[in-house]
Amino acid sequence: EVDGPSHYLRDADGFVENGATRLKTRLLEGLGWTVTRVPFFEWDRLESEAEKRRYLEAKLEIAREVETLTGDGVVLPEPTASRGDDARSLWRRTARRTTELRLSRLGM
Q1: 25 Cβ partners below 8 Å, 6+ apart?
Q2: pLDDT attached to residue 101
C-alpha cells in the first residue's frame, strides 16, 4: 500500500504511522495478509522509473522473506509491558533497516 501524508504523524525522529493506519495494518494482518508499506517520503525521493521498480522489488522481496520466517497468516505478538518493545516493532525496525541496506546497495 502506498501511504500518503495523512497516514503519518511527525515526531522528533521523522514520521510515524498514525492510529488509523496502524489499526488497518493490524486488521489486515489478522486476516492473513502481509502488509508492505510504501511511505510517501521514501517514494517521493525516487527519481526514475528504474529506481521505483528496484525499490518495489526490494520491498516485495522483504515481504516474501518475512512470510517465510513467520509462516503464512501468522500475526506477530502484542506489545509486552516490560520495555515497551515487542516483536512487531522489532520486525519493523529490522525490515526498515534491511530495506535501507538493500536500497543503499542499489545506489539509492
Answers
A1: 17, 35, 37
A2: 60
